[in-house]
Amino acid sequence: MRAVRETVPLLAAARVAGVPVIHTKVLYHPSGLDGGWLVRKVPALRRMVPGEPLAEIDPGAAPLPQEVVIAKQYPSPFFGTPLAAMLTALGVGTPVLAGCSTSGRVRAAAVDGVQHGHRLIVPRECVGDRHEAPHDASLFEIHAKYGDVMDRGEVVAQLRGLGTGPAQECRRRSQPGAPPGFWEACAPSVSLPFSPSRSPPAPRRAASATRAARCPTRRSGSAAPSTA
Q: DSSP secondary-structure letter at 48?
């Protein structure tokens, strides 16, 4: 699962910088009633119940004890969850999204995130899908309309730049008691100085290496990273 491996240094950089990390995962009642028509359309989702290993976040990107994990029933981590209120209370303006699948949870998070007034960042290596075509198409659409698709290395470098100095102390003083962290993806508590590209990125085959069948169901995407 390349997307999971690539997310590890992203999470590490966010935690060192004191950036809030919020995880999300799909979880249903055993009856499936809280999944509505979605679980009827995708019966495999009925397995996402308490105690089922497939419903757990991949161990490679496991949350720390102090990090919030939000259970959701639909693709967007904003729909029917407290995520929007949490980001507002934390003063988060720039969520960074990571997780699977790109065409499902990540894209849904980007659409809802921009509608909630956030600037979205998607590190291309930290998201994945079952097939290359929807992965590339979704990154193209996200970058063209909803946020900025960037290389993970650039995002990590920016996060590391937040890890020391007055800016970090200011964030800590303004959020007493707030646990250090990141959104299933990662949501910095201040807007990062990213420079958005002027045009959508061309499809990149290397970004679609995460093809494991379990990838789209292991991480849900996702606040500062959102496992989308």
A: -
Domain of 187?
Answer: 2-195+205-225
Total tally of structural domains belonging to the chain: 1
User: How far is Cα 58 from Cα 79, in angstroms, rounded to an integer?
Assistant: 22
CB contact burial 73-106 (16+ within 10 A = b; e otherwise):
bbbbbbeebebbebbeebbbbbbbbbbbbbbbbb
Give residue 89's pLDDT. 93
pLDDT confidence bin for 2, thresholds 50/70/90: confident
What CATH number corresponds to the domain at position 85? 3.40.50.850
The answer as to whether 25 is a domain residue is yes
Q: Return the H-helix or E-strand segment holding 170.
A: helix 166-174
pLDDT at 163: 57
Is pLDDT above 80 for 42?
yes
Q: Rg of the chain over CA atoms, in angstroms?
A: 16
pTM of the prediction? 0.72
Is residue 95 included in any domain, yes or no? yes
Give the per-residue pLDDT at 54.
87
> Cα–chain-centroid distance for residue 77?
9
How far is it between the farthest Cα atoms of the chain? 51
Residue 23 inside a domain? The answer is yes
Which single residue is written with the structure tokens 């981590």?
77
Beta-sheet strands, E only, within 153-205: 185-186
Q: Is residue 200 in some structural domain?
A: no
